[in-house]
Structures are given as C-alpha cells and as structure tokens.
C-alpha cells in the first residue's frame, strides 16, 4: 500500500477504482462515503504522508471534527468519481 501512496495521482487513481468497484457492486453513495471515512481514519493513523498533497490532506483530517472528516471523505470520493 505504501507504494500507491507515494504519488498522489496514483492514490487518486487507486481511490477512483475502488469507488467505481463499490458502485458496480451496488453500494449506495452513503455506504461509499462511510467506507471512505474509515479509509481516511486508517491512513491518518497508520500511514506517513509521502508528499505535499497527502500532508495537506492529513493536516486537514487532523484539524477536523468527526463531521468535517466525513465531509472531507465525501469530497475525496467526489473528486475521483467524475464518471
């Protein structure tokens, strides 16, 4: 997983693929957002940011309360779900 996170565009591509797979599996937008939140929690706790973009996302995540973290997770899903 660390290799995926080294390049932010690769991370967005990775997330986009997972969001697409979840959608094709019939998951609702709300379920996908909840999963994105859980992934965000995991990444914030376990993965050291590898570049400026990831560091900014971590700092935003760390600064937010739970509702703001859910919003950030939904925004990340929205960012990669352009199709």
TrEMBL record:
This is DUF3243 domain-containing protein. It comes from Paenibacillus allorhizoplanae.
């Amino acid at each position: 997983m660390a290799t995926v996170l080294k390049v932010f565009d690769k991370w967005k591509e990775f997330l986009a693929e997972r969001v697409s797979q979840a959608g094709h599996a019939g998951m609702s937008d709300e379920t996908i957002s909840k999963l994105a939140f859980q992934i965000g929690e995991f990444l914030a706790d376990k993965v050291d940011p590898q570049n400026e973009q990831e560091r900014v996302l971590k700092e935003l995540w760390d600064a937010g309360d739970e509702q703001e973290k859910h919003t950030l997770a939904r925004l990340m899903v929205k960012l990669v779900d352009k199709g």
